[in-house]
Amino acid sequence: MKTRTKKILTAVFLTLALMAVALGQVRIVSAPNFTLTNGETVSKTLFLLSQNAELQAGSSVDGSVVMLCCNLTVSGDVTGDVWLLTGNLWINAQANVNGDVSVVSGNLSK
């Protein structure tokens, strides 16, 4: 994908994310490492600004998961989409993702 196209997609995505934040429909996490542990639930779209994130088995997100960069491992349940702008995405066998899975620039392993 060309650099200009990536920049446009990123700008559009960030605009939509800010609109969702304004409407209170997004939980934003900006820690170097984030783990959603067994039994934890996020009842909104989860927007990650982390270097590494993990959704452990038994965790759930009632919405989509969006991560801008780095590494995301999904072992839990996601009712929406999983979207990674750039980095590595691992969808483990026990994960249950009801929506689409997209990696704009990076690697996807299932």
Describe this structure in words.
- By secondary structure, the protein is an alpha/beta fold.
- The protein contains one helix and eleven strands.
- The strands form two sheets. Strands 1, 2, 4, 5, 7, 9 and 11 form a seven-stranded parallel beta sheet that branches. Strands 3-6-8-10 form a four-stranded parallel beta sheet, with no helix packed on it.
- The radius of gyration is 13 Å and the shape is globular.
- The protein starts with a helix and ends with a strand.
Quickly give the structural class: alpha/beta
**Largest sheet data:** 7 strands, parallel
Helical percentage = 10-25%
Total count of strands: 11
Count of alpha and pi helical runs: 1
The proportion of residues in beta strands is over 45%
Overall spatial form: globular
What is the distance, rounded to the nearest whole angstrom, between the alpha carbons of the first and last residues? 22 Å
Low-confidence stretches: none
Order of helices and strands: HEEEEEEEEEEE
Radius of gyration: 13 Å
Mean pLDDT: 85
Question: Which structural traits does this protein have?
Answer:
single chain; 110 residues; alpha/beta; seven-stranded parallel beta sheet; four-stranded parallel beta sheet; globular
